[in-house]
Specification:
The structure is a single chain. The chain has 271 residues and is of the alpha/beta class. The chain has one domain (3-9, 76-270): Metallo-beta-lactamase, Chain A, CATH 3.60.15.10. It is 21% helix and 23% strand. It contains six helices and 15 strands. The protein has helices spanning 3-16, 110-119, 137-140, 143-149, 229-239, 259-270; strands at 66-68, 74-76, 78-84, 89-95, 98-102, 127-132, 154-158, 171-173, 178-179, 182-186, 195-199, 204-206, 212-214, 217-219, 246-248. It has a six-stranded mixed sheet with strand order 3-4-5-6-7-8. A five-stranded mixed sheet has the order 9-10-11-12-15, with no helix packed on it. Strands 1-2 form a two-stranded antiparallel sheet. Strand 1 and strand 2 (74-76) form a beta hairpin. Helix 5 (229-239) packs antiparallel against helix 6 (259-270). The two termini are 31 Å apart. It binds zinc ion.
Length: 271
């Protein structure tokens, strides 16, 4: 890839890709990190609190940047933002006017999602997909409220984790699937159906809880909350095979430079 193209892309990610949300809304239903409590129920009305579900105006929406694809076609660059709920994060990814939410976090955080969507010039109206990295309560607990706001969005979760969603309708996904141009990488071990999300063009990996970050270091899945550490360590090795500058986590701060190098260094301690 020409260096100029890389620089343009980096500049774009720098402008729109930084996790700048500093507001942590900690509701009373915060669960322990990586709780296996996956019990969630749809709200009785199916409609979220209109105050928290307010759609963000788009008056200051940034213009979409186009990049030349290798075949000469113009494709919209990926924009992303962290939905920082304190001890756990979700993410919003946009390409053009279409938005994918990755993970739902815990309940009572719709305003934090609102801010993240606004930061990438989007609103709930643009959300067509919700991809869940795994079925732990701190990643799916906010799902009923999100469904209340975007009832037509399609929900996806790793096939082996789908049972925990109860009556919520979700599509099973597996390694190698592609959603909205995003590659699904099976990364089991933290949970049997854990998946990570990779965008090769943007150089972005959403690791979920397959990898964690603490104090600038990347770590494997948390053994206290993981179902199979042998499998989890093998998943780190698989995630180290891709190339990406940016890697973001369910727990910890995003790494925006040298992401795959950091994961390779972690993998070398595990193999
Ligand atoms: Zn987890």
């Amino acid at each position: 890839m020409p260096e100029l193209h890389r620089l343009q892309r980096r500049a774009f990610l720098t402008q729109y890709g930084k996790g700048a949300i500093g507001v942590a809304v900690l509701g009373p239903s915060i669960l322990a990190a990586c709780s296996s409590d996956g019990d969630i129920t749809l709200p009785a009305t199916g409609v979220a609190d209109p105050e928290t579900a307010a759609v963000t105006p788009q008056d200051d929406a940034p213009e979409t940047t186009l990049e030349a694809a290798p075949d000469g076609q113009q494709t919209a660059a990926l924009r992303w933002e962290r939905v920082n709920m304190g001890f756990v994060s979700a993410y919003v990814l946009a390409r053009g006017s279409e938005v994918t939410v990755i993970d739902a976090g815990v309940s009572q955080n719709l305003p934090v999602f609102d801010e993240a969507l606004s930061a990438i010039g989007a609103s709930w109206n643009d959300v067509g997909h919700v991809i869940l990295t795994h079925n732990h309560g701190d990643h799916v607990g906010g799902l009923p409220e999100i469904i209340g706001v975007v009832p037509k969005a399609k929900i996806y979760i790793g096939e082996a984790d789908i049972g925990a969603l109860g009556s919520i309708e979700a599509a099973p996904i597996n390694d190698g699937d592609e959603i909205f141009g995003l590659q699904i990488i099976g990364s089991p071990g933290h949970t049997p159906g854990h998946i990570s999300v990779f965008d090769a063009d943007a150089g972005l990996l959403v690791a979920g809880d397959a990898i964690n970050e603490r104090d600038g270091l990347v770590l494997g899945p948390n053994p206290d909350f993981s179902s199979d550490m042998t499998q989890g360590n093998a998943s780190v090795l698989r995630l180290a095979e891709r190339q990406y500058e940016t890697v973001v986590f369910g727990h910890g701060n995003p790494i925006e430079t040298g992401g795959s190098d950091a994961v390779i260094a972690l993998a070398q301690t595990l193999s």
